[in-house]
Amino acid sequence: MRKKLFKWHSYSALIAMLPILVVSITGSLLVFKVEIDGLLRPHHMLTSANQASSRLNLDELMNTVTSAHPNYVIASWELFDNKIRSDTAYLIQKGTENWVKVYVDQYTGALLSSPQGLEHYISDWLLELHYAFLLHFNGTVIGILIGLIMLFLGISGIILHKRFWAKLFALRWHAAKRIMFSDIHKMLGIWASPVFIVIAFTGVYWNASIVLHEVLEHSSDEQQHVYITESQYDPSILFELLRVETAEHIQSFQPTYMVVPYEPSMQITFYGDVKTANILLSEYASTVTYDKLTGEVLTANDIRDASIWEKLDDSTRKLHFGYFAGLGSKIVWCVIGLFPLWLGLTGLTMYILRRKQQRSKRNRI
To answer: What pTM, to 2 d.p., does this model score?
Structure first.
């Protein structure tokens, strides 16, 4: 059984090596996506605010965007109030499924960019490459398969080297090349496996959730995407009032993301952060939903009162990107995210050396 598992482990790694390397390298870079964007595009990502600055009225900001871009409808809005990061408005071109985004200085009302597609900027392109290999829905399905292979490689690696603690730091530099590369491969795999398994599992979970949503929500002719040409909410709705009111429905609620209805069945929903000792809960964990026609509150879901399953579901975000413990965990996730590159190189080298050794034995017979 051990020999069969070793073969499955080896062949799975060889078959999926290229896509795994793509996922690993892009994933390591994306751990620092916000920082990279800030360095490459500070004129988009950063505001000119000081500590005394206050956010402008959300309705005023939304009107500024829609007035400047009348051919688009606002679909969602990423909210920040840290005096550093700018807001991001997500728009849909009227009569199409084309999503774009615009950066907005929430303290001055200035539009910091023109509408650009969700894959226009280099980090966004890398994100799409990471999750779907630039193949959209089909790529998402492929991503699930690659994630399952990565999960199998991590688990099978632990099983194959079940006495890994005894050889955790064993590295025979002066041994034969195949043995030395085998030691390197095992050591890297042992160190990386726990994080590797977490990253692979959460990646599979996310992609599977996307595929399931598409299948369930848009599987029949009656459920196809709606091409909107106008806003799907009552024009008298005051979004700033709703944003401020969210804290009345959930204690310590800080809105971080707003969804504006862009399909007939949708309502107005604010996602947000709450004060909690659980470092794995994301900044989008709690929600307050309002009726899009009356502005009345419909639901207020506090993640602190949620079920264990709901908390586990939300924690996949921080676990996948590794920012649950600040800079330290992000560095660990970034470094270990690159381990498959070295595992692939050492594994391929071992395979080549083993094949050479087998051919040499056959030639001597």
So the answer is: 0.88
208-239 pLDDT tens trace: 999 998 887 765 544 556 688 899 999 999 99
Tokens at 22, concatenated = 């793509």
HEC secondary structure over the chain: CHHHHHHHHHHHHHHCHHHHHHHHHHHHHHCCHHHHHHHHCHHHHECCCCCCCCCCCHHHHHHHHHHHCCCEEEEEEECCCCCCECEEEEEEECCCCCEEEEEECCCCCCECCCCEECCCCHHHHHHHHHHHCCCHHHHHHHHHHHHHHHHHHHHHHHHHCCCHHHHCCCCCCCCCHHHHHHHHHHHHHHHHHHHHHHHHHHHHHHHHHHHHHHHHHCCCHHHCCCCCCCCCCCCCCCHHHHHHHHHHHCCCCEEEEEECCCCCCCCEEEEEECCCCCCCCCCCCEEEEECCCCCCEEEEECHHHCCHHHHHHHHHHHHHHCCCCHHHHHHHHHHHHCHHHHHHHHHHHHHHHHHHHHHHHHHHC
Strand order in the sheet with 286-290: 116-117, 99-104, 87-93, 72-78, 254-259, 268-273, 286-290, 297-301
pLDDT one-digit tens code per residue, 241-279:
999 999 999 999 999 999 999 988 899 999 999 999 999
